[in-house]
Amino acid sequence: MSTLATPNGFTLDTSGRRVVVDPVTRIEGHMRCEVNIDSANVIRNAVSTGTMWRGLEVILKGRDPRDAWAFTQRICGVCTGTHALTSVRAVENALGIMIPENANSIRNIMQLSLQVHDHLVHFYHLHALDWVNPVNALKADPVATSALQQKVSPHHPNSSPGYFRDIQTRLKKFVESGQLGPFKNGYWTNPAYKLPPEADLMAVTHYLEALDFQKEIMTVRTIFGGKDTHPNWLVGGVPCAINLDGDMAAGAPVNMASLNYVQKITDRCIEFVENVYIPDLMAIASFYKGWLYGGGLSNKSLLAYGDIPDKANDYSAANLLMPRGAIIDGKLSEVLPVDLTDPAQVQEFVPHSWYKYADESKGLHPWDGVTEPHYQLGPKAKGTSTNIEELDEGAKYSWIKAPRWRGHAMEVGPLARYVIGYMQGNKEIKEQVDWALKTLDVPIDALFSTLGRTAARGLECQWAARKQKYFLDKLIANIKAGDTATANTAKFDPKTWPSEVKGVGFTEAPRGALAHWIKIKDGKIDNYQCVVPTTWNGSPRDNQGNIGAFEASLMNTKVERPEEPVEILRTLHSFDPCLACSTHVMGPDGQELAEVKVR
Amino acid sequence: MATETFYEVMRRQGITRRSFTKFCSLTAAALGLSPAHAQQIQKAMETKPRIPVLWLHGLECTCCSESFIRSAHPLAKDVILSMISLDYDDTIMAAAGHQAEAIIDETIAKYDGNFILACEGNPPLNQEGMSCIIAGKPYLQQLMKAAEHAKAIISWGSCASWGCVQAAHPNPTQATPIHKVPGLPSKPIIKVPGCPPIAEVMTAVIAYILTFDRFPELDLQGRPKMFYSQRIHDKCYRRPHFDAGQFVEAFDDEGARKGYCLYKVGCKGPTTYNACSTVRWNGGLSFPIQAGHPCIGCSEDGFWDKGSFYERLTDIHGFGIEANADQIGGTAAGIVGVAAAAHAAASAVKRARQKAGDPGEEGAAPTTNEFEGQD
Fold it and tell me: Check: CATH 1.10.645.10 for A99-231+238-294+451-487?
């Protein structure tokens, strides 16, 4: 039998030619993808594999819970900070620590600046080359490019023909040097690229502008966290004390000068996103309107935990400015409540992951998680254990576990948040989505695609930049009202803690729903478990044979040239995969190490 | 056949002589060199060819790449377009799959012995190396192949330099820093530790290698002395508070608001060698201590396994200076110096022992900073 129907509605056919992409590049971490294509070059089976693991949760055992943010922050340097924030929230949840309003505002500013940075860098530096052809940009007329720029973004100052001519000259010489650097061996003659040369030149120019600008975005976090990548965080609040008046205010981390600086950067972020990113997104999308592949699970099953608490210490859905909820079975109008402490909701399966359970027909809640490595290729795999030619997806084939929500494979990320928010009637999200659909003149179904995922990320970037300003204003207003507190240290000393506590913390990482579960015993970490966005999106099959979001999104896509997998990259990149995040806890030499019991 | 110089490339790419001169001055400043050296850099850049770079990623979190792109001077854009030829970097390269892997072979064929291998992350040795798979094979194989043909190796960040977080106890994957990889071809290695390293330190190291065609002067551990010869404590702007005995006792207390010394809430500045308090971060904007958090010592070997980040150093090393720190900083300063020196001595002993006991340990680290001539 070469065809197989999955419970979540896909028909897999392995009879066609197998195409392997390894490494999948322009992602964080390491990943492999295999597909079967039929005689018309349409993908009929997709296999996605996480190809790295590091074992951070094991390393956390026995450590000081106040340090956990620093360890977990090193899960990922691209979504830097979101694991740290999730971690301090988990510890605070376990110990019942309330943080000051200012700390909440500063954390939100830091988390929102990550959304802005991560989405922008993803679009220009990880994703754009799937849509934009830098070699084709050499054919552009700089005058026409200037006209295009002024049409799509009249407020962006860099728009003269001379400006584009200079960039084109630099690009031309670069290409002519024969040393193409990062553009080497790209698929530049592939007909899958649809932009006219002027749009290519505009986008390549902004690739470079964005590379210069992105370094400014995160400087907000350098003010509050001291450095970026990997700023500093604190259980109980934030480490940056506020001092606006009097003795030695100039030496304080947060003073009038630093607030002014944050104000300037925040304004510039809004400007850049609105004058460059959003117009580019719309301009590029307008040439790919007909390419509506890649929907996958996005109109079937979606999950978001929510984030950005408006008021401090209230993590209920009503107080979260980023939406929270779950959609299953394609019932878009019915958004279900999510409870991370309910053992029936989030469960992880391993029959197709390189781990071992006593009974692999069942999933385990992170509270009861077991992680025992079991690297083994299936009987139909080709090659050897250290030289894989083709994987056998009927057996174990990935370092990623398969998390499921009430048994369903779920998509997480900006599109999930935007569909859930739209369905909940979130006014800001609805306004943005309706504007984008109207601008592109496409129906709402167009959202459920690779392009929809990419568009939602851009809209969310704009939303985040605006919200960053909202929380900066809120911070300043609160300070003006006389509240300068930034940390609650009443329970900072482990001697004040109960002997055994448990907690869960969550955020919306740029790539989607993220949660950490912690158990603290006698002042030390007893157990720690993370379930992260790319674990959801990049999951292999589960015990029922449900395919995950990556695999689902590749199904039924036509590839122009199978030897040049640009369509595969396009769709995988639309999720912004983060493999260092997704791979699980691991014990040395096959030892069972992670057993998490939290409530 | 004449190879283009860095200057020719910049000129060809439409960059003016004036901008080029400015670039050289900024680079000199970033390297902490005098204006006279700016001319030397300029001269070198006018005559030296571009160097191909293979930037490989093992087990890591990509924070080094993220830091690198935040460089203010030179801009990452100019490094990538004009200074080096970044032929392989799977985080940003357009190609994927076999087209990506072919680039490594092409670079080796064309520039055998004349490219830089930049390592971000490290290889795991457990599970046949298959906990980090590239193109169906262990990352270790890709690393060894590239190292065999490279001119020199840059170990970016604490992962490549020391092992970092995945190598923290119990190091489940047996993640191994580059210089300790068994059988690694003997090549000059420069360590640029930090989690991540400071962006301008990374680009300055590249600029230095490009300009002078050799590594900058390295310390015994293989780090460039110009950035790693001083403790953060030595040049900390809060140092006068330490000397005056003015300490933050708890986060957000009166001392924290006044910018007092963070030593008593765990600052590792006195034992951490890095340029945070001089170069600072993100274009010289700030650094962890300036933002109110103690230094966690992220550029030091094994910093994850030295106890809690919030325990003061005295509690860890047991030098018993707590009373002194509470009394008066002046005395404490001397004793912390002793503590740091003792720490350094202990490290040296450890190194010597490792070297004697196991040639694979530390043995591959270069004590010389000179390249072979490349003509």
Answer: yes
